[in-house]
């Protein structure tokens, strides 16, 4: 897949999830394979120019974290241009402009989803960024402000005219938040609105089958995956395999899930130090555990870890507790197996081939608790 001058190893993208898609998680996903391009959490252009430590931490990277897009937000044209130029000189592969953030504090300043309601002004700002750098500039948007204002097709066309190299579309409106189903027809309308640039579809892709369906029904060139990657960081690798061969790899085994959980914490400690890394890990560990089967005991205890050794203690306790749910072979008894994930836009549970057909359909993909609920 190509985005202007950038050639990517796959058409699968890791979506920006503020607070989650930091360097450690990006490395975890990349090590498992299949990621074409990963994007940082959104970074305030002004904070970057002011060398605020939080912004600098957000753009921290390593050679193994390539190719990397940095997502910028802001509404002051000069700041956006200068921030993009600075990112280019630091070796970033592409710059993504956030237009889909419905958080009040972002929209108030004219950035985020507010950009979608002011097409001309936005196109001018974006053209300035495109002209300031040689690397591709992309844009991430929702379908529009609400059902009555589906602006994404017009915005995408205007941005293509302004020189944007690709567009990422989350198939929901700002008003929808994370509720309701992702609107594949809405994504298709964006694909049809642009002439040559790739459109990358996004929203609720939690399985390889969902990725395939989004590609087929919208005509999008690639798929971007956010929350689904937290349940299942193997999703990129498995989706690539499925798209290439039609075969679904089996779900990762529990011991492989534990290996990746530990690897994730180790990287958190390398990047953030033990104290801060452990504190941050408390909120991401339950995402890994969603596919462990019964995990309430793990979730209760992991939120108290303060050291790497604490995680091992929590896991040792958990493994003892989990025994009660296992059969003679050490596998989860069928009634305790997590139900298959189901994307909002797929009617039926897709993973019958994985032997979980007895389980009830999976729950809708949740939004993490806390201030991030406004995304
Ligand atoms: C916790 C959280 C943080 C997010 N942070 C960002 C962000 O920084 N920039 C952005 O463009 N979108 C952000 N999003 C939106 C996601 O990139 C994505 O569009 C949305 O979650 C739908 O995709 P998914 O269903 O695959 O997660 C965030 C979403 C969540 C749940």
SSE layout:
Elements: E1 2-3, E2 6-7, E3 12-14, H1 23-32, E4 37-44, H2 45-49, H3 53-58, E5 68-73, H4 77-89, E6 94-98, H5 104-108, H6 119-132, E7 137-144, H7 152-161, E8 166-173, H8 184-193, E9 199-202, H9 208-218, E10 222-225, H10 227-231, H11 235-245, H12 254-272, H13 274-289, H14 296-302, H15 308-322
Parallel strand pairs: 3-4, 3-10, 4-5, 5-6, 6-7, 7-8, 8-9, 9-10
Antiparallel strand pairs: 1-2
Which runs of at least 5 residues are low in confidence (pLDDT < 50)?
349-363, 370-375
Class inferred from helices and paired strands: alpha/beta
The percentage of residues in β strands lies in 5-15%
The percent of residues in helical segments reads: 40-55%
Tally of helical segments: 15
- DSSP strand count: 10
Strand order of the largest sheet: 3-4-5-6-7-8-9-10
Based on Cα principal axes, name the global outline: globular
Question: What's the rounded overall pLDDT mean?
Answer: 90
Radius of gyration: 20 Å
- From the N-terminal CA to the C-terminal CA, the straight-line distance is 28 Å
Give helix and strand order, one letter per element, not per position.
EEEHEHHEHEHHEHEHEHEHHHHHH
Which ligands, by name, code or SMILES, are bound?
A: flavin mononucleotide
Largest sheet: 8 strands, parallel, barrel
């Amino acid at each position: 897949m190509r985005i202007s001058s950038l050639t990517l190893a796959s058409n699968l993208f890791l979506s920006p999830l503020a607070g989650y898609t930091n360097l450690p998680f990006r490395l975890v996903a990349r090590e498992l394979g299949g990621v074409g391009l990963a994007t940082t959490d959104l970074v305030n252009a002004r904070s970057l120019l002011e060398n605020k430590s939080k912004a600098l931490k957000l753009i921290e990277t390593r050679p193994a974290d390539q190719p990397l897009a940095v997502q910028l937000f802001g509404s002051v044209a000069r700041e956006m241009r200068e921030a993009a130029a600075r990112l280019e000189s630091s070796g970033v592969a592409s710059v993504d402009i956030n237009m889909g953030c419905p958080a009040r504090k972002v929209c108030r300043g004219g950035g985020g989803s507010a950009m979608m309601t002011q097409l001309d002004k936005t196109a001018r700002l974006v053209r300035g960024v495109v002209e300031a750098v040689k690397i591709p500039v992309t844009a991430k948007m929702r379908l529009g402000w609400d059902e009555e204002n589906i602006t994404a097709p017009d915005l995408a066309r205007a941005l293509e005219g302004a020189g944007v190299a690709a567009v990422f579309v989350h198939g929901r409106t700002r008003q929808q938040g994370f509720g309701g189903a992702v609107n594949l027809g809405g994504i298709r309308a964006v694909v049809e609105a642009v002439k040559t640039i790739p459109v990358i579809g996004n929203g609720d892709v939690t399985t390889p089958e969902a990725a395939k369906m989004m590609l087929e029904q919208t005509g999008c060139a690639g798929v971007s995956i956010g929350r689904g990657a937290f349940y299942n960081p193997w999703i990129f690798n498995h989706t690539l395999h499925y798209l290439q061969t039609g075969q679904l790899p089996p779900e990762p085994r529990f011991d492989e899930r534990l290996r990746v959980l530990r690897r994730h914490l180790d990287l958190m400690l390398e990047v953030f130090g033990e104290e801060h890394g452990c504190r941050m890990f408390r909120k991401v560990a339950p995402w890994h555990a969603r596919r462990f089967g019964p995990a309430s005991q793990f979730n209760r205890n992991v939120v108290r870890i303060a050291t790497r050794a604490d995680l091992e203690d929590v896991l040792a306790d958990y493994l003892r507790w989990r025994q009660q749910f296992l059969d003679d072979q050490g596998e989860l008894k069928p009634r305790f197996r997590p139900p298959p994930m189901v994307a909002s836009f797929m009617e039926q549970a897709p993973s019958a081939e994985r032997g979980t057909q007895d389980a009830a359909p999976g729950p809708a993909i949740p939004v993490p608790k806390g201030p991030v609920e406004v995304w």
